[in-house]
Specification:
The complex is a heterodimer of chains A (319) and B (124). With 319 residues, chain A is an all-alpha fold. Chain A contains 13 helices and no strands. Chain A is 70% helix and 0% strand. Chain B has one domain: Helix Hairpins. In chain B, helix 1 packs antiparallel against helix 2 and helix 2 runs antiparallel to helix 3. Classes of the chains: A mainly alpha (319), B mainly alpha (124).
Chain lengths: 319, 124
């Protein structure tokens, strides 16, 4: 049997008040606690001045390396600890290395079935005589695509960091003229002979990437070095005839998107057991090994442009 | 100590180079020298990887006379990994150098202690 309560009695019970407080309908302290408005905080001007002085003194003391004994002690300790840590690290690594299997032997965990597969089936599956080129541009082509994008993103970031606006640019050009030799006859004569040879050698390395040592990255670096030499000898006026920011943008865009599309096609057909229209060719011929030659050219273009762009941006803040 | 320290002298050299680069990072105050230390560490890693792929008495992995047996060539995988490492190292060096140039134009010094001192004096 439940007892019937009146409304007033119910309102006095603890649970009713608790629920009202819980639902936020009632402030339990209203009318019970006395409240005064707080005084606003006012900074004493003298105290503020003293505080500033002390702050400056602390800064001077802490960051004055010549007079601060604690900092000097800390620096000495830091040097000693870092040398000791380096020695400890050397000892640790040497002990670890002494337990590794001997260099040059065959029965090491590195020489596993992956390497065996690459060597035994690489020529047949990729058509490249150079097994490393077949590996990085066919089996692991997305890795190389990522590398090219790393280079591109690095160039873009350097461009963001070092780019100058119009007025700064003219200052930089004046500085450039002051510090760099202009129209150096010896350099120009040497460059006239060397630049074509260097660039042809770079092109040879790129085109020969699937047949011998070389490939897009090394050949692109050689071409970039040739361009930098040309720039040093003849100045920005000559190189800007054929290489500007626009050229860089379009070359990188076309190379990277060609790489991406071509390799996506190749992976799609390979994964779905479809017939690929790209011919493998006879191994050893210059036009062979499917996509590796065009991909090498794309990577080489990106790398050559990147090397030149790095140099131009570090020297003048733009190109 | 294990038995193979002398046989693994290339890897030992790479470990020592790595530690030299790391100590450079710890001890040098000059930002350019710090970047050089990081590059020394990179080179140590390349040496280590090249040593890993080497097998005594075998040829570079370029097929000669269409001989494709495992016993003829060294391991090609570490060579590919070194390539990746070189590319990333170039990009990171360029990025760090450009950041250093920005710091230099702002603070007119390459010394990290002086830069942090100026930062403290600016109240950051």
């Amino acid at each position: 049997m439940s007892k019937k309560r009146s409304q007033e009695e119910y309102q006095k019970t603890f649970s009713f008040r608790f629920f009202r407080w819980f639902n936020g309908e009632k402030d339990p302290y209203l009318g019970e606690v006395e409240m005064h408005p707080q005084e606003e905080y006012q900074l004493d001007p003298q105290a503020a001045l003293r505080y500033e002085k002390e702050h400056d003194a602390i800064l001077d003391k802490v960051y004055d390396l010549e007079r601060n004994k604690t900092m000097q002690l800390f620096h000495k300790l830091y040097h000693a600890t870092s040398i000791l840590f380096c020695l400890f690290l050397i000892a640790l690594l040497l002990v670890t290395i002494s337990y590794l299997p001997a260099t040059g032997t065959i029965d090491r965990p590195v020489n596993n079935e992956v390497a065996k597969r690459y060597i035994e089936n690489g020529l047949e599956e990729t058509g490249a005589v150079n097994i490393v080129a077949g590996m990085i541009l066919d089996y692991r082509a997305f890795d190389t695509l990522g590398e090219s994008h790393v280079l591109f993103v690095a160039t873009v970031t350097v461009l963001i960091l070092l780019r100058l606006n119009k007025t700064q640019k003219s200052d930089a050009e004046i500085n450039d003229r002051r510090f760099e030799p202009k129209n150096d006859t010896i350099l120009q004569l040497v460059a006239t002979f060397l630049v074509p040879i260097i660039i042809i050698f770079g092109i040879y390395i790129i085109l020969n990437g699937h047949l011998g040592p070389g490939g897009g990255f090394s050949g692109g670096a050689v071409i970039g070095a040739g361009l930098v030499l040309y720039l040093n000898a003849f100045g920005f006026a000559k190189t800007e005839r054929f290489f500007t920011e626009k050229t860089y943008k379009w070359v990188c865009f076309f190379s990277l998107s060609f790489y991406c599309l071509a390799k996506s096609y190749s992976f799609y057909t390979g994964a779905n057991q479809l017939h690929s229209v790209i011919p493998k060719g006879t191994p050893g011929a210059i036009l062979s090994s499917g996509l590796i030659l065009p991909l090498n050219i794309a990577v080489g273009l990106v790398v050559a442009c990147t090397i030149y762009a790095f140099y131009a941006m570090f020297r003048k803040g733009g190109f | 100590m294990g038995p193979n320290l002398l046989a693994n002298y290339g890897e030992a050299v790479s470990a020592i180079l790595f530690c030299i680069g790391f100590t450079n990072l710890l001890l040098q105050n000059n930002l350019i020298k710090k970047i050089i230390g990081l590059n020394i560490m990179d080179s140590a890693i390349y040496l280590f990887l090249a040593e890993k792929g080497y097998i005594a008495g075998r040829l570079a992995p370029i097929v000669v006379d269409s001989v494709t047996s495992v016993d003829t060539y060294i391991n090609p995988i570490p060579s590919g990994l070194v390539l990746t490492g070189i590319v990333v190292s170039v990009s990171v060096s360029a990025l760090m150098l450009s950041l250093t140039i920005r710091l230099y134009t702002r603070y007119h010094t390459l010394n990290l202690d002086e830069i942090s001192m100026q930062l403290k004096k600016e109240g950051r």
